[in-house]
């Protein structure tokens, strides 16, 4: 999406997020905080995407981003509607749930999180996430609960 296509409430959220992740009374935010800020808004950039954005918006390697460039970056990752985001999340989980049971094993989820893709997360983070959502008896994770919480 483009910035001009965003709703005023979306623009306000992006601006408030920028201010929250910027050092006090600064008109710039450290590039190193960009990923955290975008993910705080429930956007899902990969580290590779963040690197590409950083190269585009900070070609001089100042290590900083202003609010306008942050808005452009956020808009580029923005889902047009919450339904689009939800659809994206369901599709991602269903890749690993071939039977469409609505659950995946804790073991599989951990393997996905720490080994799959270009950006695995630390084992400790995977364990923390699984502990939060795992059914202790079946060792299954109902991903509908994860999706529901992400959509709140």
UniProtKB/TrEMBL annotation:
Keywords: Repeat. This is EF-hand domain-containing protein. Gene3D superfamilies: EF-hand (1.10.238.10). The keyword Repeat applies. Residues 84-119 form the EF-hand domain. GO terms for molecular function: calcium ion binding. It comes from the Eukaryota. One of its GO terms (cellular component) is myosin II complex.
